[in-house]
Amino acid sequence: MEEDCGYLEIRLNELLKKKGLSKNKLSYKAEMNRKQIDNYCTNSITRLDVYVLCKLCTVSGCEIQDLLVFHPPGEEQAGRY
């Protein structure tokens, strides 16, 4: 049985809307594959890549806490991968 340790929510989709960036533009500026961007937008990532997170923050001009949100154990997990 897996222990509930909480989870991380990736808020790239919300961040793109807030910044007025399209996935295509982010993909180009960050030199990332569009599918990889989609996976981050839909929280379909199981292992975070620190280099990719740094790229996303740099290109979108955000702080890491704008991109990642920790939800503690027991908190509602609606929309979790």
Strand order of the largest sheet: 1-2
- Beginning-to-end CA distance, first to last residue: 18 Å
Could you spell the SSE succession in H and E letters? Answer: EHHHHHE
CATH fold field value:
434 Repressor (Amino-terminal Domain)
| Uncertain stretches | none
Mean pLDDT score? 89
CATH class (first level) name? Mainly Alpha
Structural class: mainly alpha
- Domain unit count: 1
Q: Biggest β-sheet: count, sense, barrel?
A: 2 strands, antiparallel
Helix percentage range: 40-55%
Q: What gyration radius follows from the Cα positions, in whole Å?
A: 13 Å
The H-level CATH homologous superfamily, spelled out, is lambda repressor-like DNA-binding domains
Corresponding CATH architecture? Orthogonal Bundle
**SS elements, strand count:** 2
Q: What proportion strand?
A: 5-15%
Number of helices: 5
* Mass-distribution shape: elongated
Word description of this protein:
The chain is mostly helical. The protein has a single domain, classed as 434 Repressor (Amino-terminal Domain) (Orthogonal Bundle), CATH 1.10.260. Helices cover 48% and strands 10% of the residues. It is built from 5 helices and 2 strands. The protein has helices at residues 12-19, 23-30, 34-41, 50-60, 64-67; strands at residues 7-10, 68-71. A two-stranded antiparallel ribbon has the order 1-2. It starts with 6 loop residues before the first strand and ends in a 10-residue tail after the last strand. The model has no long low-confidence stretch (mean pLDDT 89).
